[in-house]
Design brief:
It is a single chain. By secondary structure, this protein is mostly helical. The chain folds into two domains: 81 residues, no CATH class; 140 residues, no CATH class. It is built from ten helices and no strands. Helix 1 crosses helix 2, helix 6 runs antiparallel to helix 7 and helix 7 packs antiparallel against helix 10. The longest helix is centred in the N-terminal third of the chain and has 35 residues. The model has no long low-confidence stretch (mean pLDDT 84).
């Protein structure tokens, strides 16, 4: 993999020159974002299939073989639907609100290491960045309720934001234990720290991962 990345970097610098860092950053963003869209789409299909099996029915099976093209059909349907907003709403803020919710979810993946040297932004405070960027979505929920200029959506938004904040407190405490265990906020360093330990020397690396000593914290994080 290192040889392949070095080859791509060499050829890219030769072809694009000084624009190569920008081009390479855009390529890495696309490589991360596109699989995420596909994963979300087909996880939704899997959920609908599972619910269908629980109801003793087939679930989506009309679009494509075994219904595998159903997420594409759903995406096209959503793109062609009429955009509806409350009459008295603040239109600009009302449409910005969902963007404020979804963009932090994508931005958090910028510091997730997929392999050694395969990370979009290998920042030293990666864990802190994830905790901070994931909390921004609360403002989108509040903005959606407030910009509708109706008291009932606003009350619902306040309730949802209170729930999200309470969950984030538990998630934050769970992530702090990872920091204390690994001694670093850098996600690549956290991954590398799990390759050491008693079980790692025996060839049982998966038993040296943080999930085992921090199992209660994992359960708390998963529920949150």
């Amino acid at each position: 993999m290192d040889n392949f990345l070095n080859l791509v970097t060499t050829q890219g610098e030769a072809f694009f020159g000084s624009l190569w860092p920008l081009v390479w950053a855009l390529v890495r963003i696309v490589i991360i974002v596109l699989p995420m869209f596909g994963a979300v789409a087909y996880m939704t299909l899997w959920e609908r299939k599972l619910i269908g099996w629980m109801h003793i029915r087939l679930g989506p099976n009309r679009v494509g073989p075994l219904g595998l093209l159903q997420p594409i059909a759903d995406a096209l349907k959503l793109l062609m639907k009429e955009i509806i907003s409350p009459t008295r709403s603040s239109k600009v803020l009302y449409f910005i609100a969902p963007v404020m919710v979804i963009m932090p979810a994508f931005a958090a993946w910028a510091v997730i290491p997929f392999q050694a040297k395969m990370v979009l932004a290998d920042v030293n405070a990666g864990l802190l960045y994830v905790m901070a960027i994931s909390s921004i979505g609360v403002y989108g929920v509040i903005l959606a309720g407030w910009s509708s200029n109706s008291k009932y959506p606003f009350l619902g938004a306040m309730r949802a934001s209170a729930q999200m904040i309470s969950y984030e407190i538990a998630m934050g405490f769970a992530l702090v234990t990872v920091l204390l265990t690994s001694g670093s906020l850098n996600l690549s360093s956290i991954v590398a720290s799990q390759e050491q330990g008693y079980f790692a020397g025996m060839g049982l690396n998966f038993l040296s991962w943080n999930w085992l000593p921090l199992l209660p914290m994992f359960v708390i994080y998963f529920i949150s």
